[in-house]
Amino acid sequence: MQRVLEPELMDDAEQVVAYAEADFEKPHSEFIQRLKAFVNEPGFSGKALDLGCGPGDISRRFARAFPFCKIDAIDGSKPMIDYGVNSIDAELQSRLNFIHGKLPDTELPELRYHIIFSNSLLHHLPDPQVLWQVVKTYSTSGTRIAVMDLIRPDTTEMAKALIETYATKEPEILQRDFYCSLLAAFTVEEINDQMAQAGLPLTVEQISDRHVFISGIAS
Ligand SMILES: C[S@@+](CC[C@H](N)C(=O)[O-])C[C@H]1O[C@@H](n2cnc3c(N)ncnc32)[C@H](O)[C@@H]1O
User: Fold this and answer.
1) Is the CB of 75 within 6 Å of ligand 1?
2) What is the pLDDT of residues 104-158, one digit of tens each?
3) Which of 71, 100, 124 is the pocket-test mutation for ligand 1 (most atoms within 8 Å of CB)?
4) What does the DSSP assignment read for 8-66?
5) Ligand 1 atom index nearest CA of 53
6) Residue 77 CA: which ligand 1 atom is closest?
7) Has this prediction a pTM greater than 0.90?
8) CATH class of the domain at 13-217
């Protein structure tokens, strides 16, 4: 099945609330567990960057899991960032900085980060190299890079079956977004080609029937 683009930014108010209030407990807590295993350093205190942070659920989970890190979290959607800003606990406020800005045009506060992560941004980008070039710009030797995203199924029937399995209890708008996201996602093979084109030494691993995890350390 050919890739079908979906709107790049999620800035419709109803869509933002549906997404922000959806139950992402399982994939988001698994993502944080993977980051912990990947970083594998008690007391890790590097500067962190969350690309396409949306309403900030993963940014907040990361801040709690890595209490010595400061995090810049960026998204091109103003309602997403507003949701994130309004949901920060007082205890996280000094470490978690939400930034409204579209990549790759927005300049980030730090020149380099020690860890760069992103969940579910890649499939929103018409040009996937936007993500990989931003990763390259803001990493240095030793930067940990971890990206999770959806995988495009082979057929629309398979995409519909994934909605049936994982999203029937969610509001209709969220089911529609999930379906569109599956159609806009990349295959593992395409992501491997992206790595070669970007010259990034990252490992691309299918970790479930719908998720891919891309990780490695910048050289
Ligand atoms: C599916 S959401 C993922 C949000 C969050 N990472 C999560 O896992 O809950 C994708 C987000 O990427 C944002 N986005 C898409 N293209 C972007 C770009 N070029 N620059 C910044 N944010 C972008 C969208 O606005 C949306 O909030």
Assistant:
1) yes
2) 999 999 999 999 999 999 999 999 999 999 999 999 999 999 999 999 999 999 9
3) 124
4) SS---HHHHHHHHTS--HHHHHHHHHHHHHHH--TT---EEEEET-TTSHHHHHHHHHS
5) 6
6) 25
7) yes
8) alpha beta
